[in-house]
Amino acid sequence: MMVSFHRLPFTFLLSLLTLTATTTLATPNTCTPATPPPAQPKKFGVLLFPGFELLDVAGPLAALSSLARIHMPEYELITISEKKGLVTTNNTFPFHQTWLATNSIYSHAARNLDLLIVPGGTGTRTLDPVYHQYIKDVYPCLRYLLMVCTGSGAVAKTGLLDGKKATSNKFSWKWAVSQGPNVDWVREARWVVDGNMWSTSGVAAGIDGTFAWIKETHGEAEALRVANMIEYERHTDASWDPFSDVWNNTKRGL
User: Fold this and answer.
1) What is the pLDDT along the chain (254 residues), one digit of tens a residue?
2) Do strands 98-101 and 103-104 pair parallel, antiparallel, or not at all (unpaired)?
3) Does some domain include residue 35?
4) Model-level pTM?
5) How many domains is the chain partitioned into structurally?
6) Residue 34 forms part of a structural domain
């Protein structure tokens, strides 16, 4: 039986159009793998969520921003959150920072990246499931996923780290490993690499992990050049980890 739309009430048609538009907007864009992939990663994204750790973001971005200065205007960097706009590190503390997310997780740019950085922070413990879903959706098209601090706990929650090696913040070790019982957690490590998954220990370790990634993808000369530009002395041994003993021995970790 054919339905003639011109016979339907206007209010019904309006409701139908509204429902269709709402459904379309709520459906995430799928990622599109680059074919062929670029010789070097050029599209960088960092995920921001309420309660992200400031240095987990600022440290790696200091290195990547300097790398981008060398390769202008080829390299792109975006900050990503559920919605475009301001995101705070932790508004329950008297001292906190607010950063601008330039892109929504549903935007085309946020779903077509070479490298995604997932920071840690207190917000990983109450992370909205939309962020877990975003990571799962975008991962198949990523060339690299870099997790800093308890960001690896957030990724472990998605199941993407199952069967893979990873590390995390040693102060928050108990919580991080509880998020992924099927992950091969490496306690004594500054950073760990398993395939295209890069995870680092707590906070400042994200800088060393980023430089290790730059060395892997751009060469030692480029990593040294960037380190000299920001006057940073690198830890180049992935197994260097005095903080594992600090928090393991005192039993004060969370």
Assistant:
1) 444 434 444 343 334 333 333 333 344 557 777 677 777 899 999 999 999 999 999 999 999 999 999 988 899 999 999 999 999 998 777 788 999 999 999 999 999 999 999 999 999 999 999 999 999 999 999 999 999 999 999 999 999 999 999 999 999 999 999 999 999 999 999 999 999 999 999 999 999 999 999 999 999 999 999 999 999 999 999 999 999 999 985 455 56
2) unpaired
3) no
4) 0.86
5) 1
6) no
Q: How far apart are CA 156 and CA 154, in angstroms?
A: 5
CATH code, domain with 148: 3.40.50.880
2 assigned to some structural domain: no
Main-chain dihedrals φ then ψ at residue 189, nearest 5 degrees: -165, 140
State the pairing for strand pair 43-47/115-118.
parallel
In a domain, 159, yes or no: yes
Q: Which range marks the domain in which residue 107 is found?
A: 42-250
Nearest-angstrom CA–CA distance, 112 and 68: 18
Gap between the Cα atoms of 144 and 40, Å rounded:
11
Where do the H-state alpha helices sit in the chain? 10-26, 54-70, 129-138, 151-156, 173-178, 205-218, 220-229, 242-250
CA distances 7 to 18, 140, 191, 252, Å, are 19, 46, 65, 71
Residue 184, classed as helix, strand or coil, is strand
Spatial CB neighbours of 146, under 8 Å, sequence gap ≥ 6: 60, 115, 116, 117, 118, 198, 199, 200, 206, 209, 210, 213
